[in-house]
Fold Xylose transport system permease protein XylH.
Amino acid sequence: MTSTKPSSSPKVAAPDAGATATLHTGTSDPRTLILGNLRQSGIYIALVVIVALFAVLTDGVSLSPGNITNIVLQYSYILVLAIGMVIVIIGGHIDLSVGSVVALTGAVSAVLVIREGLPWWAGVLAALAVGVAVGAWHGLWVAYAGIPAFIVTLAGMLLFRGLTLRVLDNISLSPFPEEYQRVAAGFLNGLLGGQGFDAFTLFIGAFAVVGYAASVFRTRVARVRHEQPVESFPLFVLRVAVVGAVVMWFAWQLAHARGLPIVLIVLAVLVLVYGLLTRRTVFGRQVYAIGGNLPAATLSGVRVKRVNFWVFVNMGFLSAVAGVIYSSRSNGAQPAAGNMFELDAIAAAFIGGAAVTGGVGTVVGAMVGGLIMAVMSNGMQLMGVDQSVQSVVKGLVLLVAVAFDIWNKRRAAGAR
């Protein structure tokens, strides 16, 4: 059998194409489109409901400028991990080692910067290099040795936690220099002035809204040109207006607190880059193809081993980014850092719409899933809920999200 060129990718549906391939007109009934994309629509509704619920339960404290800023600072590293985790899950794998990698990369950075006195940026670069090396280690075993990712990363979880203890000599190291702390605790403010608020933060928010509106308008025009289904124009305008209002409200809250967090800029860049990577590149389409139908992807010429290898290298890199952010936020490195982070990242991906069997999921969905977990955790902390109860609630939410995924698949299969 003769295969196609390795650089080609199988013709699979775009990740956000939905289940409306049978429609042939440029417009469609809004109810049909919403039902056809129930997986994606549901998480946005769930986020709004959860935010509103905790706003009521905390008498509005959860939506205060200071608390909104704290949510961004406290959960940014989980959102970074969720970006990498959703790509791993789309490819049909899992990574249980990310919490240990977060601890190891933070420990390496702390040893170099705090103990050895190297510049702060040297610690960051060393942490990123260690993360990439860890990802390559996992990728070699999974892609080329053929060992299931569950086993490889479970071993990695133990291995790299042990290396963390060795690197730190079982003690914590702190504090980092001020420049290193600014990675996760710094703010950009005062650049454009403002009376009682930061005008620069509002400018960035407005710029993001304009960019979003232009992007979705171009997508709509392209779909109409190719006779793909889209919502009616009034509904499209309403959607853009709602998203714009939410973004500007969020920017307004940040502007009245401490300004624009530097870590939020890092996170936004990662979301944009990986959103484009998964939806617009050959590599992204190949990851979806491998997770959705491995035999078909292989016959279509996809270099499965190479793609799987780079999926885990990328996960190691993002784990290192999260490790730098976490160590900067905590102003030190601890042997127990990153404990259970892998479960939070996995939960964010599944709640955000990723399928257990692979081939389905989006970066934006993982972000929404991570925000749901963040809002719930923050809200329960504000209410003084016991940590054990918080774990119970998180576990139930994850179970419901996976059950919904299975039910949605059975419903779709029954409809066919």
Observations:
- The two ends are 32 Å apart (CA to CA).
- The first helix runs from residue 30 to 36.
